[in-house]
Design goal:
The chain is built from two helices and two strands. A hairpin with a 2-residue loop joins strand 1 and strand 2. The longest helix has 27 residues. With 81 residues, the protein is mostly helical. It has two domains: 36 residues, no CATH class; 33 residues.
Length: 81
């Protein structure tokens, strides 16, 4: 079977494994499992992904807070600027 390339892409072709022909579906499911394992096995990539998710969550919470607050500070209304 072909090996993974640097991006983790999988070969999409038929192989004979133990005398049985395995198609694309078998190879793709195997590759998904390998990619998931490689993601959790690489601590830097896992840390970067978690940091990105935290940033997205904090950005979403900040946007919700600003939109729900409205214009509650009359000193900075658009009329006075």
């Amino acid at each position: 079977m072909k090996r993974f390339d640097e991006t983790g892409n999988c070969p999409a072709r038929y192989e004979f494994v133990n005398g049985y022909m395995q198609g694309d579906h078998w190879i793709k499911s195997f590759c998904r499992k390998i990619r998931k394992f490689r993601f959790f096995a690489d601590p830097e990539q896992r840390e970067m992904k978690l940091r990105e998710e935290k940033m997205q969550e904090s950005l979403r919470l900040a946007q919700e807070a600003v939109s729900s607050r409205g214009n509650d500070n009359p000193d900075f209304s658009e009329d006075k600027l």
